[in-house]
Amino acid sequence: MAKEKKLVQSITARDEDFAQWYTDVVREAKLCDYSGVKGCLNYLPNGYAIWENIQQDLDKRFKESGVENVYLPVLIPESLLQKEADHIEGFAPEAAWVTQGGSEPLQEKFCIRPTSETLFCDVWSKTVQSYRDLPKVWNQWCSVLRWEKTTRPFLRSREFLWQEGHTIHATYEEAEERTLMMRDIYYNFIQDDLAIPLITGRKTESEKFAGAQDTYTVEALMHDGQALQSGTSHFFGNSFPDAFNIKYADKNNELHSVYETSWGLSTRIIGAIIMVHGDDDGLVLPPRIAPVQTRVIPIAQHKEGVLDKAREILDALTAAGYKAKLDDSDKAPGWKFAEQEILGIPTRIEIGPKDIENGQVVVVRRDTREKIVVPIDEIATRLSEILETMQKEMFERAKAFRDERISSATTMEEMGRKFSEKPGFIKAMWCGGEACEDEIKAQVGGMTSRCIPDEQEHLSDTCVCCGKPAKHMVYWGRAY
Amino acid sequence: MAKEKKLVQSITARDEDFAQWYTDVVREAKLCDYSGVKGCLNYLPNGYAIWENIQQDLDKRFKESGVENVYLPVLIPESLLQKEADHIEGFAPEAAWVTQGGSEPLQEKFCIRPTSETLFCDVWSKTVQSYRDLPKVWNQWCSVLRWEKTTRPFLRSREFLWQEGHTIHATYEEAEERTLMMRDIYYNFIQDDLAIPLITGRKTESEKFAGAQDTYTVEALMHDGQALQSGTSHFFGNSFPDAFNIKYADKNNELHSVYETSWGLSTRIIGAIIMVHGDDDGLVLPPRIAPVQTRVIPIAQHKEGVLDKAREILDALTAAGYKAKLDDSDKAPGWKFAEQEILGIPTRIEIGPKDIENGQVVVVRRDTREKIVVPIDEIATRLSEILETMQKEMFERAKAFRDERISSATTMEEMGRKFSEKPGFIKAMWCGGEACEDEIKAQVGGMTSRCIPDEQEHLSDTCVCCGKPAKHMVYWGRAY
Hints:
2 copies of one chain form a homodimer.
Chain A: H1 2-9, H2 18-28, E1 32-34, E2 41-43, H3 45-64, E3 68-69, E4 75-77, H4 78-81, H5 85-91, E5 96-101, E6 104-112, H6 117-127, E7 136-145, E8 159-169, H7 172-194, E9 199-202, E10 214-221, E11 227-237, H8 239-243, E12 247-249, E13 255-257, E14 259-266, H9 268-277, E15 294-298, H10 306-319, E16 324-326, H11 333-343, E17 347-351, H12 353-357, E18 360-365, E19 371-375, H13 379-404, E20 406-408, H14 412-421, E21 425-430, H15 434-443, E22 448-453, E23 472-477
Helix pairs in contact in A: 1-11, 3-7
C-alpha cells in the first residue's frame, strides 16, 4: 500500500494549511498549472473539462432567456478604452499593451481586452438606429487579461476564462429586469449544478463595478470561512451608451438613450468548487458538473472474467448515457482508488471475482465513502439515484456548514470576536458611509461588505461602526 | 413589393462581380463586420451561431477519437517562439507584440499566439517523462492573431477563430496514423455536415506548414473556380519535440524522442459555406449546420386565427426538436420571404387563411425554391425528410459543379487554356521540383499546387512544365 499512501500524502491536510491544501489539490488533480508567462495558466484536460461543462449548462440557461452569442476582438484601441472616464481609470493600470505589429511599431497602441464594454458599445453605436433594433442581448465566451501582481490558480490570474454578457434596452425597467434575471440565472445554476449555497444582494457604492449604477452579486463561503464573489450582474443606466452616443428613434422618430447591463462569471468558480467541496483526499466534484461521473475499477483483474465483466459494465453505463470510464491500467487497486478520489470522480464501481460470484458490484461515493452494494444488472438504473442523492446531500452539507458560519453582530467588539472565533459571514447594520466600510476592513480582519441582501433583517437601529442611524443590513466577510 | 426588392437589390449578382457579391452577402446576412482594429472582425450573432454549430459537431467527432480539450495562454514569450528555427522564421514577421504590462515596460516581450506549437511543447517538456504519459492528444478552441496586410471577412483576418490540435506519440506510426485520422475527420465533417465536396492529399514541400515533415489538406472549390484550403493536418516527426527536449523513458528506462502532429480548422470554413452554396439572393445554409432550420411566416397575419395557428406550428416543431423561429413582425410577407432567403435559413413555412381552410402549410426550400404542400398535422414528421433531402441534394449539386470544373492537362499551353476557359482544379503531372511550381504560378493565373492526391492517375510520363520524368499527379488551382 506504499504507493497510494504516497499519493494521498502529497496533499497537505486541509485544516493544517488551507492555502497549501488548495495548491496541492489543484496540482495533484492536474487541473491547471502555471505557464512560462508569469501569472498565466495552462488549463489542463481535467480542469478545462469542468469549465466546458459549466459553459454548456450555463449557455443553455442563457439561450433559453434569449441571449445570443458573439465574438468581438481581443484588442481594444487605446482611444476606445478612454471613452468612458471611470472605465479607463479602473482598467488602464492593469492592461497589457500591444505596441508592435509584425516588424513595425503601431501608431496607436492596443490593449488586450480586460473586459469588453467598450467594444460592444462601439458595435452598437454603428448599428443601432431604431426601436426595432432593440434589445440587444449578447454574450461572449472568451479570455480576458489583467496584469495582476499576485496570482493564484483559478482565483486570480493574469489571463482567465469567462463569459461576459452585454445588453442594451429601450427602457430602464427592461434593463433592470435583465440585470436581475441574469443574477438569478447565476444563483440557480451555482446552487443547482455546483451544489454551492449562495447569498445574494446589491454591492455597496465602493464595491461596485467601475461605471455601474448597481452591481448585484452572488457570494459563496469557502471552507476556510472566506467569501468568494462568484458571479456579478451590473446595471449601467445610460452612462456607457451615452458616452458612445448610442441612440434609438422611437415610433414617432424621437431619439432616446438606451439602458445597458453587463454580467459575468469566470473560471474563479472552479476555485469555489474546490474550496467548498474538497477534502483531505483531494477534489470532490458535484455529479452534475463532473466530466466523469463514475470510474469502474476491477479488483484482481488478472483473474479470468474480471476485466470482461468490468468492460461489460462500462458499456452498459455508457449506453445508458453516463459519463463512465474504466481503469484497466496495471496499477494496484489501492492506487486506483486513491487516484479516483484525488480527481474527485463522484463514484467508483468496484468489481472483483467475489462480486461476480454474487452478481453484484460495490458503488463507493466519493463524498461520504459510503459503500452501496448493487446487483450487476441494476447498476445502470441505480447509479442515477445514487448520483442525484449525492448532489442533493453535497448541497445540504455545504449549506449547513455555511449557515453555521453566519453570525450577527451589533458592535465592533462583537464583530471582531465572532469573526475570529468562527470565520464566515457576519450580518451587521450599516449607515451607508464608505468611512465605516474602511474602518471595519481595518479593524476586523480585512472584512469587506459582500452585499446588501434582498431580504433585510432589522438587527438594531444603528450602524455597527459609527453608531449613526442604520440604513441597511449588510453581509460582511473576508473575500478572496 | 418595393421593400423586398430593395433588400435583394442590395446584393450584387454573383456572376457579375463575385468578390462584391461575397462582401454583400456577408453584410446583408449580418454574419460579421470589421471592428475598430484594422483587419479584426466582430463575429455577429448570425455568423457566430454557425461557428458554434461547427464547434459542436466537430468537437463531438474529436472526442469520439480520444481528443481532450485544454486552454493554453494567449501570450508566448519571445524566447519560447524562437526555440524552433523554421517556426520563428515563419511566424515572427506577422506577430503582434506586447511590450508593456500595466504601466511598466516588460523585460521580455510577448507575442499574441499566431499558433501554439511552442506552448504545447513547453507544457509537455515539463510533464512527460514515461511511456505511461503518452500519447497526449490535446486540442484547444481559441483565437489566433497574425498581422496580415490585406484582409477579407472570414477568409483572411488578423484575428480569427479556430481549433488547433496538438499531439505527441511514442512511435512514428502512431503519430502518422493520428495525422491521417484528423484529416479524415475534417473530410467527413465538411462533406457530411457542410455539404462541401473535397479533394484531399499531401502538400508539396513548398506548400507545407513551417517545420512540418508532411502536411495533409482538404481542398474545396468555390463557385468562382478558386480553391480554398479548408483544413490541414501536419506530421512533425521529432523536430519540434526535440527542440523542446521532450523525451520519454520506455519500460526498460531508455530515453526516446516523441513524434508530434498538429491539425487545425478555422472560421475560413464559413467563407467556404458562403462561396459554395450562396446564390444571388444571399446565403444558403446546409440544414445540418444552420442555426435556424425553418422560419414560420404567417400570411395575412392580421386575420383571425392565423397567428394562433402559426404559433401552434412553431410549438409543434420546437417540441419535435427542430430549430424553428416565427416571424410575427409587422413587415409584409414579401419582405419576410426576402429576409429569410438572405439569411440562408434552409426552409420557410408559409401559413395563411386559405392554408388553414385546407388544413395545410406550404414549405419552401431555400436552395431550389421548390414549394411542398404538407398537411398541418404532418409538418413535424415531414420537415426532417425535406431537410435531409435538401442536405443531400446540396452536396450532389456542389459535387456536380466541382467535378465539371476538374480538367486535366499535359502541356502548359493546355493548362493555361483550360484554366481560363473553365477556372477550377487542373490535374497535371509534376517532376517534384519547386522551380516548376514557381513557373506554373507565374504563367498560369497564379495557380499553385493544392495537393498530391492519395488516388494517383497516370496522365503522362513527364512533368507538365519542364518535361522531365514525372513523379506525381498534382491538383493545381488558384487559391484564396
